[in-house]
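Case study: Diaminopimelate decarboxylase.
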Amino acid sequence: MVGLLDLDGVRAAAADLRAAFATPGVEVTHTFAVKAASLVPVLRLLSEEGVGAEVASPGELALARAAGVPPGRIVLDSPAKTPDELREALALGIALNADNPQELARLDRLVPPGTAAAPLGLRVNPQVGAGSIGAMSTATATSKFGVALRDEGAVDWVVRAYLDRPWLTRLHTHTGSQGVPLELMAAGVRAAYELAERINTAAGRRQVTTLDIGGGLPVNFASDEVRPGFRAYADALRAALPGLFDGRYALVTEFGRSLVAKAGTILARVEYAKTAGGRAIAVTHAGAQVATRTVFAPGAWPLRVLALDPKGRPKDGEPVVQDVAGPCCFAGDLVAAARELPLLTEGDLVALPDTGAYYFSTHFAYNSLPRPAVHGYSGPGPAFRTLRRAQTLEELVRESGG
Ligand SMILES: Cc1ncc(COP(=O)(O)O)c(C=O)c1O
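Here is what the predicted structure looks like once written out:
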């Protein structure tokens, strides 16, 4: 089983993103949410395309630095930053968004009086509601992220917090990932924009210079079509919030899935094909270890499955209802249940498209299954290069304390 990444597709997505938000007089910094594809060569490629890194852990920061992403294009978000992580971010001069009042209090002790070497902001939860996947919805009434703006007294508290801290110059919001409609995303950005206006009016100056609007553009998993696309989102924002693009604010984005999902494919061999209780079952090597969300929440994360022969050619033949199972030792390890496909047999291949984000790059170590190799391809031919080699059993044993 391998992960495949269409590098030209990633470059094209980055170009679409840049073009969609490009506005004369507006400084836009695009960062890539590293959690979506935590592979150094992918971060390096995106960095070459002018897309920095949004990191949410020391590990993600280390990957971004290893990829050579310039500190000025790195943003640190995370709801659980330790004092050491805050210190490191300040020393490196990377932007960071505090999550809550306690984190701001820690920054009070760390930021030298009157100055800040790094751009600092506060994450707010606009509480505009959930999208279709609860676990991906970060702007619910009780979400764990940011300062909940609609809670009593919260807006006044935030305005005061900014007035007391001249070094707070950014405001951050991220309404959710996958399943959040554009209108809800725009409503979240509106809340942050209106709050920035209020802070700046209260301060009598442009204290908030930068709005970080997060990521979250959903991906279409049902076909090859890219929708809604960066252009649709940027246009929706322009229509709803003209002031966002009038040059008074610099913008930061943090898209993850929408930059890489459609460029990725998992390719796995069918080891056995069997039947049970009248159901055809193809046992493959791609299961919960690489398609974790699909296996544990199949309703929210359905994937297409392409049935291919051993040489990778599409299979034809009458569709047969079958399960496409993974190698993990639990019954629910299915990437597709009761799916109609040409009958898969021993030695065939299955391809799982749209898996460039949060799939093969976000491995789940169940059953000590090793991380698969990830190969990038580009150009006519195409030319392949290894982005991450497969984990060896020796590495796996060492990692497991052996
Ligand atoms: C703060 C923040 N920014 C950006 C993202 C990226 O979201 P997506 O991959 O849906 O674009 C996430 C995802 O969890 C996030 O939490």
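For the exam, be able to explain this: The first strand starts at residue 2 and ends at 6.
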